[in-house]
Amino acid sequence: MNHSIKEKIAGFNALGNFLKQLDEVAFESIAFQVSNNNSWFTPAHTRIALQGLGRFLDEKALADWVGGYSFPEDGSSLSIGLIMAGNVPAVGFHDLLCILIAGHSAHVKLSSSDRVLIPWLLEKLISFDPRFERQVIWEERLNGMDAYIATGSDNSSRYFDYYFGKYPHIIRKNRTSVAVLDGQETDEDLEKLANDVFLHYGLGCRNVSKIYVKSEDQLQRVLKAADKKSEVINHHKYLNNYEYNKSIYLVNREPHLDNGFLLLRECVELVSPIAVVFYEYYENEDDLSKKLGEKADKIQCVVSRQGRFPRSLPFGQAQFPGLTDYADHIDTLQFLLTLKQAVPK
Hints:
Blueprint: H1 5-20, H2 24-37, H3 43-56, H4 59-66, E1 79-83, H5 93-102, E2 105-109, H6 117-128, E3 136-138, E4 147-151, H7 154-164, E5 169-172, E6 176-180, H8 187-198, E7 208-213, H9 216-225, H10 236-251, E8 257-258, E9 263-266, E10 276-281, H11 285-294, E11 299-304, E12 313-314, H12 332-342
Parallel strand pairs: 1-2, 1-4, 2-3, 4-5, 6-7, 6-11, 7-10, 9-10, 11-12
Antiparallel strand pairs: 8-9
Helix pairs in contact: 1-3, 1-4, 1-6, 5-12
């Protein structure tokens, strides 16, 4: 049965409308199941994730997105092995969207940390367009696929590369996001930066885990602006991480700043532990560009005041990607569309 791009967009648009109009009783039901599976995924964070999906599952946004691609006319379908991450609620949905839009079948291995929300979203999508059901197969082992998309850590990426490297693939490693401060930030700017740091407790690749500053007084302002996020310390897992990292710094006598729920520590590395944000000083924009360039393959996004730094986002926008904001800056949809020629059937 033919399933046109226009019909697929209509199905995803219907899902988007459903998410936008989701009543509180239905939301609380699914949010409870999500948090019961993974206590990091609080109802507040599930709500934010669903709101984000609702924004880009929009008919115009979807049409504009696919309008930039050339879709082969042969209609051939390939089997795509999809290993999803589970660090943020429904973080793997964009990959699934790309596979379905491209006309392939998705053989999905869910993350044990996110086993509820993705199947629930697919169930709702199928209720609007049953033809999607034949395109998704849940798997525990992924053997004999035509191509693979796998997201994990630097360690798991070596495992993925060993098993899947001979097939067409996208294998993603650890990434994180950084902030650039120039000293002219307003209190409102820094409060927005706090959203980039604390949303999802810092677990996502789009969370800011490091800031580049010119002076120590900027660090004090960052800590003060973060005060409105102090409720994170009420989460038992976050509290455990905060206390553990604080005790390590104290025992080792490592200099750090502390506001009671967030630790700032000077470090050249990018990826900080939970409840910690690293910082590094820079002299000027040339120096900063050099520092960022050396670590570009580990940075998902950069935020700065009003997005003034080249190729950066405004503060507060790191966690709200659009349809073209691909993980690791690899165009997933283009990869899937070119597979029709690359893989023989």
